[in-house]
Amino acid sequence: MTKNRLQLVIALAIGAIVLVGGFFLGVQPQLASAAANRTQQQSIDARNDTYRTELARLAAQSAKLPAMRREAAALDRSIPAAANTSAFYKEVNAVAASTGVTVSGITTSWAAAYTPPVAEAATTGPTGTSTSAAATPTASASTPSVTAPVTDPQITASNFSTIALSIQVTGSFEQALAFTSGVQNGERLFLVNDIKSDRAETTDDSTTETSGDAGTTGWTLSGFIYVLSDAASAQDSQASEGGSGTSATDSSTTTASGAVNG
Length: 262
Known about the structure:
Structural class: alpha+beta
CATH superfamily of the largest domain: Ribosomal protein S6/Translation elongation factor EF1B
CATH architecture of the largest domain: 2-Layer Sandwich
Number of domains: 2
Helix content: 40-55%
Order of helices and strands: HHEEEHEEEEHEE
């Protein structure tokens, strides 16, 4: 091999070494950095997609916000955090005026702690015996099932209370029905659990109660309104509105005009 060829080979070898070294020292780090950047960009794009989806969901929820606020306000009026009986009395008088009955009084008890309902135990009627029982066997009676009442563990005596009250009105049977429907479907939740009439018609044979279709009758609606607070706080709010008495067993009577009598 001549000297010139040897120098050419050495030069080519050095050039190859420089190229390989330049690749690993300069190009390879740049390629690795570019790959890392692509991975990071993909991660950022995926995160941005998640954010866009969440923003779209929040935008949809925001569009519903006014309706949800109106619903929440209606629920607050239905079961307020204070007794707010004066507002309920005004509602009762408004319903009475629209249905034609006359409110003679409202008897309101002090707030009591909420007690969750308990399912009644199923009972079976007594079974009699007869002389033919032995000759004709019968299948044993099955025990009827009792549906358990629906309760919410978040509603307890520490955050929920009830106020028992009765409303005395006079009017016809149809007017009383309309009034009952009105107070049960008003802004304030009022659960009517008993309705009594004080009218009786005397006949030749016996005295029987009538529906009051023929004239004016006195009616008493008994039920509960509810407060989203403990009984002590509800009683304090009742007292601040002018209620009287010092214990939950006391009651006050409110006339049709809204005044409270001890």
